[in-house]
Structures are given as structure tokens and as C-alpha cells.
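Subject: Protein entry, chain in single-letter code together with its C-alpha cells

Area: Proteins and the way their chains fold up in space.

Attached in line: The record itself begins immediately under this heading.
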Amino acid sequence: MKTVDKSPVASRREFLTKATAAAVGGAAVLATPNIAKAQAGPITMRWQSTWPAKDIFHEFAGDFAKKVNDMTGGDLKIEVLPAGAVVPAFGLLDAVSSGTLDGGHGVVVYHYGKNAALALWGSGPAYGMDANMLLAWHKYGGGKEFLTKLYSAVGANVVSFLYGPMPTQPLGWFKKPVTKLEDFQGLKFRTVGISIDVFTGLGAAVNALPGGEIVPAMDRGLLDAGEFNNASSDRVLGFPDVSKVCMLQSFHQNAEQFEILFNKTKFDALPAGMKAIIANATEAASQDMSWKAVDRYSKDYSEMKSKDKVGFYKTPDSILQKQLTAYDEVANKKAAENPLFREILASQRAFAERAVAWDMDTNVNRRMAYNHYFQKKPAAPAAKKADPKKG
């Protein structure tokens, strides 16, 4: 008969042997998914932006993709192609929805033709909200739910993330300064979204074109004037080569932001942790884009004045006021035809009424401080010498 050693030393030895075996077995089990993962390789996505490769907007698209690629440790790899690489800029939504592309980078207003209410995320005065406030409404005021309803209504198989608040966009580039409403009569002008209806109401003959096609059209005389977005984009797209007059400040696109689109089938198949990374990377990219925009836009604005000899003029208040009344007429008409359009307008208005009031009452106007530090002060008159004859 075999004698069993029940001494403390033996018991401890038996415990350690079993624990080691369990640990080795557990490690083997844990290692199995990692081996499978290594065999499967990273998830890759082919995207397209709606911007030319040289535009800073395409750079913003690449910035977002890099953040996701880095934050997932390379488990998700997004490649972003420029506009036209797979589909035209205005064809992005259909391409992502059908799966021709896995995702894309653009703006909601480019889908205006699907449902006019899509233009309410960027085209119009937004009841005085700036783009950051519009994003606040989108996230906390019901906008995201409305956008989901809209995409469902048009049969779009997509998941949308909005980010990247844009500064107020210029009225546009013209052959001569715009001083009165009559200057728009018969003007061949480029814009997008509800702004098409607004400028048509001002008397212009409007043509909607993607960003990369505006300057060539102006150069060939197909357009008399046009607007795109900002100093950096406008400069690299070549606006100063075809015009030396830029009118600043407008309500036609007072509050706009970028859109990240995923094919819904592809997005839904991602692991939960990866979806969370994408959502948080979007918000990180939003802030980074804002900071980069301040730096780059201000540099290009300054250089267009000094090097490109562009004259910048403020849009007359009379035209700004007319934009508001023209927009109201268009919006009221579309609201009467489209119940969802009407609901979104009401939601934006309610949010803006308190948000804009808070903003105007809280934030000091920067003009006074700027003038105090940077405006050239007139030289003091030289002291007159005393006339000895009048002593």
C-alpha cells in the first residue's frame, strides 16, 4: 500500500504543481484568440473624401483616419482617397450606403438632393448659432436623432458622425466688391444646399459644383462668382488666380461642420471597443481640426492680403439682412412641404434661443481688445515752435 505524504511541505508542493498547470492551460486558452487575430490581420477600410487631394479638408480627413489607426494600434486601418478617386464628390452618400466605399469624409449639405432637410446641418443662418453651437444642438439637443431619421427616410445604409465646426464662410469671390442687392441680378454664382434657393431669391443664377470644380468654372467664364469655405481652401484651390475680391461674412453658411460616414453593415460588424474608439477619435479630431484651422486659416488670410494682393471687404448689412428674409421664405415653404424639415427647424430654434442669448451675454466682443493692442493709432501732432515776435 502506497503511503500518502500529508506533510505541509508536500501539500504546498502539490498546490503549486496544480496552480502552475492551471496557469499554463489558461495561457494557452487566452493565446488562442490572439493567434487567430494575427492570422486574420487588421480590418481595412477604403474611404473617399469629397475634397481635392491638395485641399486642407482632405488633410483633415487624413488626420481623422490617422487618429483611428493609431488609437486602435493598427487593428483598424482606414485609407482615405481624394474626391473623384472612386465616385464624384456628390456621390459619396450612395457609394458608402451601397458598400462601394466603406466610409467617407464630407459635409451633410452635399446630400441636399436626397432630402432638403439635410441642408439644415450647415446651410443657412441656424438662428444665429455658430458651428460649435450647432454641434452642441446635434449632440445634446436632438439633432443626431433627427439625422438618423432622415437617413432612414432616404434609405441610406450609413452611420454618421458629425465633427469639426467651421468658421463663418465668406459670401464669396467676385469680379468687383458687392455693394448692393442689385449686384446679384443675373450673376452666375456657385453655392450648395438651401443657399441655392437663397441666392436664387437674391437674383443670382446658381450652379451647385463640388469644391474642386469652382475655380476652373470661374476661369472659363462659366461662373461670375463663387464661394467655397475658408482662406486656406480658397487659396490652394486657386481663387486668388481668378479673382482679387473676396467678400467676408455671410449667413448663407453661418454654421457648418464635417461628416464622417461609415457603411452601416461594415460599422455594425466592428467590435464594441473599436466603435468606442471611433466615437472618441471623432471628438478628438474635432478639437484638433479647430486648432489647426485657427493657425492655418489666419496665415493664409494674412498672406493672401500681403502676397496675393487680394482685397477683403465686409458684406454690407443690407445684404446680410436680405439673406435672412430670403432664407425664412425658403425655409417656411420647405417646412410646409416636409414635416421632418419643420420639426428640425423648431428644434434648432428652441435650442438657439437660449444658447445664442447665453453666448452673446457672456462672451466679450474681441474687437475692442484687438483695436487696443494692434490698431495703429494716429501720430500726435507736432508741437508748434513759439513765435518770438508774438512773445
Remarks:
- The longest strand covers residues 158-165.
- Residues 272-306 form the longest helix (35 residues).
